[in-house]
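Quick check before the chapter quiz. The format below is the same one you will see on the exam, so make sure you can read both the input and the output lines.
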Amino acid sequence: MPASYAYLGPEGTFTEVALRTLPETATRELIPYVSVQSALDAVRAGEAEAAFVPIENSVEGGITATLDELVAGEPLMIYREVLLSITFALLVRPGTKLSDVKTVTAHPAAQPQVRNWMKAYLPDAVWESAASNADGARLVQEGRYDAAFAGEFAAERYGLVPLETGIHDAENAQTRFVLVGRPARPAAPSGADKTSVVLWQRDDHPGGLRDLLGEFSTRGINLMLLQSRPTGAGIGNYCFCVDAEGHINDRRMAEALMGLKRICLQVRFLGSYPRADIGVTDVRPPLTGTSDGEFVAAADWVAHCQDGRF
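Here is the expected output.
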């Protein structure tokens, strides 16, 4: 396997900045790809060891391009996550004034994060989406748009200047990025982990989603992301992308996944990996009966009963 990481490019994206926070990138070749799909396909094809892509932001939630790629196609697994605080700069060609800006571009995920700023300062500007924020900067450099919302660090790379900086509609906005590779044994629990799965119901029936969520709640497992995605099989047919606190090696998580496997049409395991935002996983109420020790004790009790030892 090549010692390289694919990422959503071109150079100068927030994705690249977040990727370079991983210590192992010092020994990897970092290769930009034009889309999330092409970066993940590079891993599937054996052209890259792993891919680094955005998966969620604190303003709009899950990034559908990434979720859909993980839902479909040859299975992949998440190994790491990185959180990056996001603020935008309005990048323009030298000499451009704010009154000159009639067209703007950026990645679609950026639009909800700058919508109010645009309404206040560029109410008549036309927005068009780009493959990434850095790609938007490249298009401005080529003269196809007047301005791009991107990281201020991308200005020098594309011969642009930041006309405005510190642009964000929501304070403390963050984007979550994940390192994705081919399936393998998950790393040992860190004590503060997250497990990601995709769930497909057997059929659409009243209380169906409650049944899925009940496998987590009865074991005291907190959900961190729940997003429905269409399966492509017709209106009303959805699967559910779930992030839950805990590791597959935790007894409560393992039992929840076994329960889901019994009642779901399909379960796709996307990995158990360290969380980037806290130090220790908080086992939420109901507290009684949800520790690993209590799960082990209950299993031992059942075994004793099966052996006639009461």
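If your answer matched, good. The chain is about 25% helix and 30% strand.
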